[in-house]
Amino acid sequence: MTVYTREQIVEQLRGIEREENVRIVYACESGSRAWGFPSKDSDYDVRFIYVRPVEWYLSIFEKRDVIERPISSMLDMSGWDIGKALQLFRKSNPPLLEWLQSPIPYLEETTIAKQIRGLAKEAFSPRSCLYHYLHMARGNYRVYLQGDQVKMKKYFYVLRPILACKWIERENTMPRVEFQTLVEAMLPEGSELTNTINQLLKRKMAGDELDYEPRLAILNEYLEQQIVYFEKAAPAVEAADALAEERLNQLFRAAIAEAWGRGI
């Protein structure tokens, strides 16, 4: 098992900048470490937004707008070009919105991520984000939690998106990233359901592998009820209009200029 410090991850990001001739304007931890329930062998899911030199964008040919590195020694690193990121931001892309509020940032040396966050409330579409989390919960439940014996840690991968759906319905904002925050905000304190979840979380955080065990009826019943409920409720959830293209074009140009210290 490899443990990385923030400095070591930043060093890896600097290596990508040199190899790819890019400026990484934002980088953070995503996945289970950001959500607050990593296993001992959880990968470091490092995600980033980068900007290429001006000339790269002045081409009649489409180019690859993703940088990915093979997973190595528990380090999983990938990022999106600023153009791709802003296009997805306009569509209220939940993974990107989660990156922007990750509790574990690694790099943010420009104002670009702050400017994107400044538009997040306008870009956020409750309906599309709720559908994203509902699809995730439904798929993970179907694949991992159907048998008499289930992999205990997979409960978190259904509970978290269901609690995100509840947050969207109640708060009409992007859900918090941290799982514990969602539990405390969305479930009644001291209930049997909450206590069961907290006990499972305590085991996971203590290093218990949470492998196959008899299914927990109280969790399965709750999750099935919530999935059915949100399948019916989702169409009535508020949608949002896409941000005006020119506002994002302005931000795109400003990002390139700031990243490379030159006007466009």
How would you describe what is shown here?
53% of the residues lie in helices and 13% in strands. The protein is built from 13 helices and seven strands. The model has no long low-confidence stretch (mean pLDDT 95). The protein has helices at residues 6-20, 32-35, 54-57, 82-90, 94-100, 112-118, 120-123, 126-144, 156-171, 179-186, 192-205, 217-233, 245-260; strands spanning 23-30, 44-51, 66-68, 75-81, 105-107, 149-151, 212-214. The chain has 264 residues and is α+β, with helices and mostly antiparallel strands. The chain has a five-stranded mixed β-sheet, with helices on both faces. It folds into two domains: 6-123 and 242-260, Beta Polymerase, domain 2; 126-236.
Strand content: 5-15%
For this structure, the CATH topology of the largest domain is: Beta Polymerase, domain 2
Mean pLDDT: 95
General shape: globular
In the CATH hierarchy, what is the architecture of the largest domain at level 2? Answer: 2-Layer Sandwich
Largest sheet: 5 strands, mixed
Reading the helices and strands in chain order gives: HEHEHEEHHEHHHEHHHEHH
Integer tally of domains: 2
Distance between the amino and carboxyl termini: 46 Å
Query: Low-confidence parts, pLDDT < 50 over ≥5 residues?
Result: none
From the alpha carbons, calculate the radius of gyration and give it in angstroms.
20 Å
What's the helix count?
13
How many E-type strands?
7
- Give the strand order of the largest sheet, numbering strands 1, 2, ... along the chain: 3-4-2-1-5
CATH class of the largest domain: Alpha Beta
Structural class comes to alpha+beta
